[in-house]
Amino acid sequence: MRNADPARPRLHLVDATYELFRAHFAQPPRKAPDGREVGAVRGLLSTLMVLTRDATHIACATDHVVRSFRNDLYAGYKTGDGLPEELTSQFFLAEDAMRALGLVVWPMVEFEADDAIAAGAARFSEDAGQVLIASVDKDLAQCVDGTRVVMLDRKNDNAVLDADGVTRKFGVKPASIPDFLALVGDSADGYPGLPGWGEKSAAAVLSVFGTIERIPREASAWGIKVRGAEKLAATLAARSDEARLFKQLATLRTDVPLTEGFEDLAYRGARPELRALCEELGMPDLVKRVTRWRS
Fold first, then answer.
1. Where are the beta strands (DSSP E) in the chain?
2. pLDDT in tens, 91-126
3. Cα(127)–Cα(249) distance, integer angstroms
4. Contact yes or no for 253/118 (Cβ under 8 A)
5. Distance separating alpha carbons of residues 289 and 285, to the nearest angstrom
6. Burial state string for 205-241 with b = 16 or more CB within 10 A and e = fewer than 16
7. Number of neighbours of residue 160 by Cβ within 10 angstroms
8. pTM, entire model
């Protein structure tokens, strides 16, 4: 990872809930001596040592519970229903393990992990030489700012997306990502977008007008050729309330009350309780790996 200014701090903001899920479904089950399932936590800690190797400052955001204020806005928004108990049982343990590793953890209840990351990027971008967001969530692309705030595309060989990279990937600038998702939907978060609108049509129109509010209701005023433009314009006009709601769901909150200052995020090493926790979970080898990780 190349920092915009190697002499300045490097802040990594990690979507730890995604990494916990990824570890659970990618790693074989693993039991602690007391019988608890801990495989996802082990995989999470191992991944964090890779994602944060070059960081001077680190924060990990979690969905302490899956539901958030967005569930009150839209009934179809994602919930924790159907998640395997052997995964959800590791949520709180994962947070304790990350703290023992010496990392700042932002556990979200009313807000989501993505909101905490967005708030952290907005608040600390002037303090860091570069902020790296490690997540696959499309909505976090709205936080990208030039080369100062970039995104690690965890599903695409860890490619780093700056503002130009976001535009190449989605066809719109970072600021238009909530509008883009409002039109095309986001299946991961449970809202469908508007019928007929796809990524190509949304990108074409938003690349000209920027926001759904600025898109003319008549396709004849668009000034660009888009397949099915008349029908798309009619759909947007008829379902503008839905589009605005979906945009609200996709817009990340930067007013999350983070209590830490920038220097609180500086990595200062694992805490003394890490050794005991690793012994308890049946993974004492991780203590040695942590020592090598920051050497």
1. 10-15, 57-63, 104-108, 130-135, 149-153, 159-161
2. 999 999 999 999 999 999 999 999 999 999 999 999
3. 29
4. yes
5. 7
6. bbbebeebeebeeebeebeeebeebeebbebbeebee
7. 16
8. 0.95
Q: Is 269 left (phi over 0), alpha (psi -120 to 50) or beta?
A: left
The encoded tokens of residue 35 equal 């019988």
Structure tokens at 214: 């600025």
Q: What's 253's DSSP letter? A: P
130-135 sheet: strands from edge to edge: 104-108, 57-63, 10-15, 130-135, 149-153, 159-161
Residue located via tokens 């991944």:
47
Angle at 61 between CA 82 and CA 142, to 5 degrees: 95
Count how many residues are written for the chain: 295
Amino acid at 266: A
For the segment 174-228, what is each residue's pLDDT rounded down to a tens digit? 999 999 999 999 999 999 999 999 999 999 999 999 999 999 999 999 999 999 9
45 in Cβ contact with 90 (< 8 Å): no
DSSP character at residue 221: G
